[in-house]
Amino acid sequence: MVLRKFCIRNGQSWHLNQVPLYESEIFRNEVLEECRSGSRIVNLFGTLEESGDVRMSAMTSKDDDARISLFSVKISKDSPVFKSLTPELPEVQGFEREIAEQFAVTFEGHPWFKPLRYHQNYRKVPDLWPGIQEKPIPGSYSFYRFNGEEVHEVGVGPVHAGIIEPGHFRFQCHGEEILHLEIQLGYQHRGIEKMMEEGPMERAVLLAESIAGDTVIGHVMAYCNLIESLSGCVIFPRAEALRAVALELERLSNHIGDLGALGTDIGFLPTAAYFGRLRGEFLNMLMELSGNRYGRSFCRPGGVFFDLDPKMNDDFRGRLSVAKKELKELTDLFFSKPSVLARLEGVGIVSEQTAKELGLVGPAARACGLSRDVRTDHASGIYRFRHLPVSLASMGDVFARAQIRWLEAQRSLDFLLELLDQVPKGELCTNVPSLKSDQMALAMVEGWRGEIAHVAMTDTQSKIIRYKIKDPSFHNWGGLAMAARGAQISDFPLCNKSFNLSYAGHDL
Amino acid sequence: MAQKILAIISLWLHLTFILVSSPFLLGVIGKTKAFFAGKWGPPLFQPYYDIAKLLRKGCVYSTTTTWIFRAAPMIALAAVLVSGFLVPMGGFNAPAQFWGDVILFVYLFALARFFIILAALDTGSSFEGIGASREATFSCLSEVALFLNFTALALISKNLSITGLVGGGVSLPWQIIGPALTLVVISFFLILLCENSRIPVDDPATHLELTMIHEVMVLDHSGVDLAYILYGGAVKLFVLGSFLMAILIPFKTQNIFMDTGIFCSGMTGLAVAIGVIESVMARLRLNRVPYFLISAVIFAVFALIITLVRGGH
Fold first, then answer.
1. Distance between CA A380 and CA A372 in Å, rounded?
2. Fewer CB atoms inside 10 A, N or C side of chain B?
3. How far is A265 from chain B (nearest CA, A)?
4. What is the ipTM of this complex?
């Protein structure tokens, strides 16, 4: 068998035949070799073949030269066992557990082999963790434990005091110090991937908007890009520009909302409320653009539904300029208070090495000095023509993550002001031809939390037979667990807020 | 006989005054914070509504708790109310005073805290255990500071009752021993912030269990019990605040209404000051709180040294 590397780009589609299939040992070596040479895992997922075998595909990205390589391997239905990659490549641990749960494939040598979302497998064979979906989760889950008289265990959730999503955090503490944190999610598993495959396309787009409630634009853009590339549809430049406007507004509202929430968590009132108001400003703009504060029903395959008329454009530019000024005043106040800095600096540190090993993405990775940004590395849409500088910090602490939010908000504002000045003219929406048969496509979007990657496959009847969603939270929850290690337990909520990950995005 | 009746009347007056006025301070703090946050905030009398609402509600008890859990809120409220009898408030003299009641004063607070901590441990919840351990650690330090302050005041006034410490009928000699008194006031203010779980030590507004100190200990209390605890907290702030006022207001007009008026505006000013502090600074990291309390101890030690050098009056 001749080894050939199959390289793809963001937003591209390719015929299923083109996907190289390797022997399992070669697959392992290829993926490991690729990652040793500076690539990272974008996606690792299984698909059920007609024969009943499981085909596992890995996508690795070499960000420096915008190259994504695709590898695949067949796992036989008779002996569904694969030698785990996790010991050599920790960033795939979640992906392997996901595949194990979805297809009842055992990963030999996986050091943390536990279920993720507590559902039955897709192969309709006995589950690896039989009956776990019936019992209450925290009670029947094998949490990692420390022994010792002075070690105490604290369990938080799944019901929390704030208005947040359900998730269980199990701390092993020595006094106030966290020795270990295990994050156990899966309470919000809705089976979105399956629903995306089964339902009609009109419903699928609504589902894509509901993957994570705060990343409506990010996920729906990934979905639209994917459908467009599977059908060979090219959208109008104006639609591309307006999608970017919505995406950046979403980023701004979330980044600024998070800065406000950090203020609330450390009890610093003045900025907490004002950041909240500023966030409302961006949500209002999205509302005026799309009719919904979170931008629902704005992007659709083929383009966007609503136009930005010249009057609204002028109005937006005026308000964004004001917001830019206000943001500067607010962040100056927030980041210059010694009492604020004392709370943020040196708390919840994730080293660059750890971030790399865990495959962090988005602001959490950039706060550790990893230059990973889909808008720059794998630009698509309007981002191919208008570059956004990547914001980087190096400390990897709560302060760095807050600072990244601030820098990115500034850059998004500049980007928007520039873009709104010269929005391409033209139509909004084009017809989407029917999907091509036997195709596979990848769409990546830099949502406000980081890299969103959707992959879809069509069969000979052009029906979508596999839809794989990866929310940035899927990578980053591990980062939070590492940030908390060695920190004070009273600082954990602050660390958590600085990541602000999605439970629904992880649980799908 | 007439004296006895007078004493009983003054006792009731004092009690009513404390009970009626204490939640008002919380309302003022809330309004001040709202002002700094650019909001209207809850009404000034919200703490009264909250307590009234909770008093009408039933309690929910976990099956793991014992009588301690039920008794603690009552004991805590009663203890801080009794401590209020020892402190003069504006025109009202302290209805009870005796040689050495300082010790009783401090240990009434300790008693309230002790039972709240026991009740927290009684629930068997890991959160409440964390809260109890934090409260116990920090109160160790604040108690030291409190006693050092009392020692300094006792040396200044040559007296060992709460009323006597703050000069009794006459005012404290600010013109002679002003620097020491200033340090005492600063130190006592820091203790007051800690004892009443205010920022920068604790954040009464947070919803994050893992960061709380006082709030997390009372998570399991509900209904009337919670009302007692809230009320107890308000009274504690009021009593400690009135002690601070007694030091700070160095004169008496001998007119009950005038004195009470001055006292009330002083207390409102104190609440505003607490509100301003909560608004302009972030909370300390939990492992820095001991440093904050040690600074209270240091201020008190310096007050003591100055007093020893300058001598009492």
1. 15
2. N
3. 7
4. 0.85
